[in-house]
Amino acid sequence: QLQLVESGGGLVQPGGSLRLSCAASGRTFSSLSVGWFRQAPGVEREFVAFIRWSGDNTYYADSVKGRFTISRDNAKNTVYLQMNSLKSEDTAVYYCAARSVSAGTYGYTNGARYAYWGQGTQVTVSS
Fold this sequence. Notes:
mainly beta
């Protein structure tokens, strides 16, 4: 059974940076594609970024494009989300999620298309 554990969240001032990590165990990580999602209080969960198993295709929500970068190190079974130029509206619990590479890029923005989820890490952007 695959387990995902997020880390790296915290409190940061507007304009600052954080790097989130999603560490996987229990299954060959290189056979999975990974997405990051976030959920703020009172708001539906939203897609943030997606990376295919090979790492050569990445996709972003318009709200984070140019500020966030998703990457992966399959040797370390870890996916990263580098977040720069953070804004107060980026405040949320961030979750990583994984799914089989057989799904390709179909429905990658839809959380229901992911079989595995981490427990989330809180990111708070505030002065």
